[in-house]
Design a protein that fits this description.
The complex is a heterodimer of chains A (about 300) and B (about 425).
Chain A (H helix, E strand, L loop, with lengths): L8 H19 L3 E4 L4 H14 L8 E5 L5 H13 L4 E5 H6 L17 H11 L4 E3 L16 E4 L27 E4 L7 H11 L10 E8 L2 E4 L13 E7 L10 E3 L5 H10 L17 H8 L3
Chain B lengths: L2 H4 L6 E9 L5 H11 L5 H14 L14 H6 L6 E6 L3 E9 L5 H8 L4 E7 L6 H12 L4 E7 L8 H15 L6 E6 L23 H7 L13 E2 L2 E3 L11 E5 L4 E3 L3 E5 L4 E9 L2 E3 L1 E3 L3 E6 L10 E4 L5 E12 L10 E6 L2 E14 L6 E2 L10 E14 L10 E5 L6 E7 L1
Parallel strand pairs in B: 1-3, 1-4, 4-5, 5-6
Antiparallel strand pairs in B: 2-3, 7-16, 8-9, 9-15, 10-14, 11-12, 11-16, 12-13, 12-15, 17-21, 17-23, 18-19, 18-22, 19-20, 19-21, 22-23
Classes of the chains: A alpha/beta (about 300), B alpha+beta (about 425).
């Protein structure tokens, strides 16, 4: 790039996201940032650290723990929180089940994905959060493509896609009535490729699950699932060892692995550039129906 | 900032463009084509579209289904909201704000246009310039989109004739003289068949200009930002509660114009107090200079009272100030504007209130005629109005700076964003 006063696409996205995160702290009284231990929430948290440096991040992180996480994710999370002296709140889906608010799905394809919504909304209410930042990106899924940076939620936590506030320039309207809250998506404009390039540019640590490794897996309807305590085997299914990595990290029950030997960020970026399947293509939770994400989001999902 | 800080893995530039048009113009087909030919559509998305195309039963794969995200949109075959799409080439990353083109969606067009570097305007080669073309061109000029690319589409249906292209081009040039637009390009294309979209057409020897993709990749956008007049609206005050930064007080914000250096003399508005920049801080440490649109934290040598909403500038190129503001607005709400009514105002990082003083005229977006009689402003109306704010604003004209020259109005009862304003 020849012009002196020009920044590349990653620096422009970074400046935008930092602006959004600072707007949240300026406009809301008690915000939090949702953190799953996946790469999107890791870079969102990294951007938050940049936005307030040299001060600490001025809000807590909240993890909605399904109990079906990869142990690598939880270890990574705890280490990162300790190193950055960040306050983490964990809310457990198991608690919502024990309280009788939701019922665990049963059967071989069961998942706690949908149950998270209840735990999340209860967490927001119990902690009196008026804003929860999430790492959703518009390129992930077609219902997300219509999402605002500042997304208004009514007192039931619901999203009304047909009645969203227009968002112009970089002006964000976070005004709300008592009991309502906002979901804010600081990395709305990032793509999967941008995230990987940024992780490399900034040298941001990520869980090892994203790199190629050997793992016992079962292949179900074309999805490679990690064989483990949470994935109930169907009759005739026998776990086998394969060389895989994960493109997204969610629950063990619904996150598909990809056969991959990519062992460095350069190799991952090359793989992402040549791959012909979206990252959520490996997510069992999105395959349930064409509007699966839209329906979940309306109810208050991430 | 140093060279090192800017050197990314891939040194791509970000370009935001807006597309306005209806399904009939082939807008969705064009977007589908750009995404498809730049390999931004994945196999599973393609499979989903093929499945959905079978359901609606129009035989061939409908690329338009890619851009319609919500269930109601797919069912009704319309786009309700602004949808954002992404693709990249080795040169640039693109963000498309895809908006419906019908008059009832003017507010969506305005929203999509507010952040765009480039407006793509589609014209059906068979129909020539219609009311909708005029409306889209007007909105692009109202929102000061720096570059307009007029895509004359469906050239295959007029036998790729040069005459059809020339007629539309000269018609559009005539419109442009009435508007505030500076850079207009014309490309004859067929979105459906791919002519001049990414690959050069073999059917139009008479056209020796660039393809649409070439324009999108190469149009010069670095000068779109005002790098002369320095503007730094304070967003948030940073005071670390840490031993090693005991006396640190930094002003966090995004530079909305100009270039700041360490050691620069600055003044703070509205107080008018003067100081010097002692450091410009980023996570990696300090930097000697920073410029729009970077997000940084600035510290000053003197301990003066500064809070969110204040504006830090250098001594040259002062903004205007005042409480009586004249601006063009687009009204967004079902509930009409109340003349004499009070609204909440957002301007840069400032929150204040205003009263609507007067409506100068309303603009008919289809004819561009001014109506000074009917002063009722409702959903999707565009008008020139004056407001009086509760305290003085420090602003630029929208033409000079899209960030310090823009305003939004908010209904204090519903909290809805009801209008976008461009200061004149």
């Amino acid at each position: 790039m020849d012009n002196k006063y020009r920044i590349n696409h990653l620096r422009e996205l970074e400046a935008e996201s930092m602006y959004v995160i600072r707007e949240v702290v300026a406009q809301f009284e008690n915000p939090c940032m949702l953190f799953s231990g996946g790469k999107d929430s890791i870079i969102m948290f990294h951007l938050a650290r940049k936005a307030f440096w040299p001060a600490r991040v001025p809000f807590p992180l909240m993890h909605i723990d399904t109990g079906h996480n990869f142990k690598e994710t939880i270890e990574f999370r705890d280490k990162l929180m300790k190193e950055t002296e960040t306050k983490l709140i964990v809310r457990y889906v198991q608690d919502s089940i024990d309280e009788g608010k939701v019922v665990d799905e049963t059967g071989v394809n069961s998942s706690r994905n949908i149950l998270q919504t209840t735990t999340l909304l209860d967490g927001i209410e119990a902690m009196k959060f008026d804003c929860a930042m999430g790492g959703g990106r518009r390129d992930e899924e077609k219902a997300r493509a219509k999402e605002r940076f500042f997304s208004h939620r009514d007192e039931f936590g619901q999203w009304d896609p047909k009645n969203q506030r227009p968002e112009l320039w970089n002006m964000f309207n976070g005004k709300k009535h008592m009991g309502e809250h906002f979901r804010v998506f600081p990395i709305s404009n990032w793509t999967e490729m941008d995230v990987w390039q940024y992780i490399m540019l900034e040298n941001i640590p990520i869980p090892n699950l994203y790199y190629s490794h050997e793992r016992a897996v079962v292949v179900r309807d074309g999805t490679i699932l990690a064989a483990g305590e949470f994935v109930e085997l169907k009759e005739g299914e026998v776990p086998e060892i394969r060389v895989v990595r994960f493109r997204t990290i969610g629950d063990m029950t619904c996150t598909g692995a990809v056969a991959s030997e990519a062992n460095s960020l350069e190799e991952i970026i090359e793989e992402v550039a040549s791959t012909r399947i979206t990252e959520r293509g490996g997510r069992y939770d999105d395959k349930r129906s064409e509007a699966a994400m839209e329906d979940r989001k309306k109810e208050g999902y991430f | 900032m140093s060279e090192d800080y800017n050197r990314g893995y891939l040194d791509m530039e970000l370009l935001r463009f807006t597309t306005a048009g209806s399904v009939d113009d082939g807008k969705s087909t064009l977007i589908g084509r750009l995404l498809y030919d730049s390999k931004a559509i994945f196999e599973d998305q393609m499979e989903a579209i093929e499945k959905a195309s079978l359901k609606t039963g129009d035989g061939e794969v409908n690329l338009a289904l890619l851009t319609d995200g919500l269930r109601a949109e797919r069912e009704q075959g319309i786009t309700i909201d602004v949808a954002y799409r992404y693709f990249a080439t080795p040169k640039r990353k693109f963000i498309i704000a895809d908006t419906p083109g019908h008059v009832q969606y003017t507010r969506n067009m305005v929203t999509g246009a507010s952040t765009a570097n480039v407006a793509l305007i589609l014209v059906d080669a068979r129909n020539g310039i219609i009311e909708q073309t005029l409306r889209h061109a007007f909105i692009a000029s109202l929102l000061q989109i720096p570059h307009i690319i007029v895509c004359i589409n469906k050239m295959d249906l007029v036998d790729y004739k040069e005459g059809a292209f020339d007629d539309i081009k000269s018609g559009f040039d005539k419109i442009a003289t009435k508007l505030d637009v500076h850079d207009i390009r014309f490309v004859p294309i067929s979105a459906k068949l791919g002519d001049n979209v990414v690959d050069r057409s073999e059917n139009m020897d008479w056209y020796d200009g660039p393809t649409l993709m070439y324009l999108l990749e190469n149009i010069h956008i670095a000068s779109d930002i005002n790098h002369v007049d320095t503007r730094f609206p304070v967003q948030y005050v940073i005071r670390p509660m840490k031993e090693e930064y005991h006396d640190y007080r930094g002003y966090a914000g995004r530079i909305e114009g100009g270039v700041f250096h360490k050691g620069d003399k600055v003044q703070v508005l509205p107080s008018g107090l003067k100081s010097k920049i002692s450091s410009i801080d980023i996570f990696e440490g300090s930097t000697e200079e920073a410029f729009a649109p970077q997000s940084v934290t600035i510290s000053l040598e003197d301990d003066i009272d500064i809070s969110r909403g204040d504006l830090i500038i250098k001594d040259n190129g002062l903004p205007q100030s005042g409480q009586d503001i004249e601006m063009m607005i687009c009204w967004f709400d079902e509930k009409p504007m109340i003349l004499g009514g009070k609204y909440a105002v957002k301007h840069t990082t400032n929150d204040l209130r205003c009263v609507i003083r007067d409506v100068k005229y309303r603009i008919d977006v289809n004819t561009l005629e001014h109506d000074t009689e009917n002063k009722k402003i409702g959903l999707n109306d565009i008008a020139k109005i004056t407001i009086k704010t509760t305290k003085p604003l420090f602003y630029d004209t929208y033409r000079k700076n899209r960030k310090t020259g823009s305003i939004i109005l908010i209904d204090e009862a519903t909290n809805n964003t009801v209008a976008a304003g461009m200061i004149m």
